[in-house]
Amino acid sequence: MPAFTYPLAWIAAITLPALAAIYFLRHRFRRQPVSSLLLWQMHRESREGGRRVEKPKWPLVFFLELLILTLLVLAATGPRWQIPHTTRPLIVVLDDSQSMLAGPEGERPRDRAIEKLKQLTEERRFRSLQLIAAGTTPRLLGDKARHLAELENQFNQWTCQAPEARLNAALGLARAMGHQTADLLVLTDQAPLHPPSQGKLRWIALGQPHINFAFINAARSAHGSEDRVLLEIANPSAHSGTNTLRITAGTNLLHRETLTLATNKTRRLTIPLPANTPLLQASLGPDALAGDNQVHLAPPARPNVRVRIAIENGELNQLVAESLTATGLRAPNDDPPELVIHQSDSVPAGNNVWGLRWLPAPDEPERFTGPFVMDANHPLTRGLSLSGIVWGGHPGATNAVGYRPVITAGNVPLLTHRPELDGRQQLTLRYIPNHSTLHTTQHWPALFWNLLDWRTQAQPGLRETNHRLGLDIPYRPASMKVQIQHPDGSHQTLNAPGAEIRLPLSAPGVYQVQSGSGTNRLSELMAINFLAGEESNLARAVTGDWGQWETDHEIRLEYASILPYLVLFALAIMVWHLYCIARQGGRT
Amino acid sequence: MNYRPSLIAGEQLGLRYALALPQATLSGQRGEHLGRRAGSSVDFQDYRDYQPGDDLRHIDWNAYARTDQLTVKLFREEVQPHLDLILDTSASMALADSNKAAALHQLAALFASAATNARCSHAVWITGEGFQRVPNDTQPPSAWGDLNLGGAHSFEEAHGLLPPRLRRQGIRVVISDLFWPGDPLPTLRKLTEGAAAVTLVQLLAPADLEPPQPGNVQLEDSETGESLSLYIDTTIQEQYRQTLQRLQQSWDHAAQQTGAQLVTLIADNLEGSLRSLEECRTLEPA
Predict the structure, then answer these.
(1) CA distances from residue A276 to A225, A248, A298, A304, B7 in whole angstroms, order as listed
(2) CB A461 within 8 A of CB A478
(3) Chain B residue nearest residue A45, CA to CA
(4) C-alpha distance from A13 to closest chain B C-alpha (Å)
(5) Which chain A residues are closer than 8 Å to B100 by Cβ?
(6) ipTM of the assembly?
(7) What global pTM score does this model have?
(8) B217 chain-A contacts, CB cut-off 8 A
(9) How far is A18 from chain B (nearest CA, A)?
(10) Mean pLDDT, rounded, of chain A
(11) Residues A236-267: pLDDT tens digits?
(12) C-alpha–C-alpha distance, residues B193 and A405, integer Å
């Protein structure tokens, strides 16, 4: 039985008798007695008039119009008809990790998964299909679709570039979306940790074990005037194998080595390089998984800070200078300064200029031996220990307004910090070297290293130039816009409203990141490498089918709108009506 | 429907007119008009030899004395002309929603009255089961019997069934709408045969002249009862007018061939149309 969403629309059915009345009135012939039909039977029929109108006076077009009106009135009521429906939607969790690309083209788990999904949708009807890619974070590939053919575009977005597949997180999302009624399907290359029982989850693994050599670690760091490269290659396969390692810088071959590794063994290489060595590329010979056979290592960032020492006391000036030099983070020049160490009351002027005010020694300093209280979360106290030292300070000193203590001796502030609204930091140090022992310990340079390192973190640009795929890449832009050149040569511009952003890069390769303009323009080379030992381990790839959906079919009668069919039918009748009118020369 | 008032009105209207008489071809009973044959009037016409049976009063005795030959003096015949009024009383002449029937009565009475004014006898023929005389048709129109409009037969059919016994050398006036199919010439030849003069008066209603307004119309033949449903537009209206014109032309052509005269009168404007009867010398002022 049909149901009507807007039963009041039946009022429009009044048009039906109205139409009949119009036709009746229009086709009513007024009676006209004439002396003789002689004069009328002699006429020739004209194109329009004169055509004899035969009874009955209800032409076909009347019934067509009646049918059109009936259909439109019916459509206006919003009729809904009970139609059998497949009740269950299917939500498919697709493993988006790189291991789904292992193997030759056409036999990769990804290809087999698509084929399997086609097969399943042919065997069983679902109300809708929804795809979720399970990478480091689950993501929807698009809207729901009624047929698999509508998902072709979504399959193109299933790139399998993630360094890991968080299937459980994706399954959680799928369950939330399915409202406990959807059938769930996992297509991966791994076996489930806990095989699903009879229910709504079906887990299908389509992987195959392969021998695969992979980079599982790659780093390039600055060590004084040279760079040091660390590479770690593993054979996480069930069988031993041999592969070739090549390390090149541009067109120069720096290293070549044939690696023979037993199962689950690794080979670690440490290679020193001159600091001016450009982008480094390390590669392995082709095997089952191409994504882990190559790494790029960009020259590491060597941040430094321009420090100006404005201390008149010669001994103290020398102490500070030596301490800064020991950190290796001080720039050879100090103009324009990024950090000013001074003893004046005023705050150093200039944008992005931090200040460390070293308070002059009082007439009668006090030696503090503890207990010292440190803000352990403060950047300046990282790795710092004050046990057993003597700190000469100002007796009875109090904390100035706006400053927060970093190191105190009891309730006497020794090192305080005040952040300013524009991002600058102002520090106050109460330390009298003549009455202290801290500067004779290893913690003194550590304190200054922490200071300069903290300052470098506030500098624009990348902190690290080599990243592992899947991790956050922080970036401090020098302007509100950041331009990124991707490995494929495409360009992307990001808005950077804050002081620090996360670069949304999800594919391995070499990137050029730029921001700022003029003399502040910053252009940096950055490499993202696929380094995922677990993902490269193809020995765990399996083929199997776990879990079954509860019922093969569950059909339920549901009210579905038949309005589109009525409108289409009405349109078809309208075309027929138009044809009839045209054939009759425009007369009804 | 009582058409007596129309007869009386026509009779009174006819007092203004007299039937125009053709001199050369008159014939009739003894009367007051000179006939075309020798008769008993005072107008001398000719001499001829006496023949047995001639009236002895017409022997010219003076001539007999001079020539010893019996010679008879011939005088012009004095005749009374006769009008045969032939009325189409088929149903088409009683067209509904028109003054056609009243006009027929009025016109017939007018002609009868005009004939009396011209000292003509008259007879009135109507179409029924053949042509029949109207009761008391020799009397003034107000004394006539019913004309029995609505006859089942058309003029032509009635003529075929029983033709009117028309007086030779009489004047014949036919009043009809002339709506019947076929060639009018044979019918008109029969009407004009032996007649002194024939006048065809085509009496039409305005509805005969002008087709109905555009639209769906169911036309009903007043004689046969047949109906025809038509969608009338301006084209059809024009075609109707042309057809009517062709019909009138065919009658006019036949009238010219037979020496008759055709006059068309409009029922609703009868008095205004009578001038055309004067112009064709059928009527003349009394």
Answers:
(1) 9, 14, 11, 17, 139
(2) yes
(3) B236
(4) 29
(5) 35
(6) 0.79
(7) 0.52
(8) 29-32
(9) 20
(10) 88
(11) 888 888 999 999 998 899 999 999 999 889 99
(12) 151
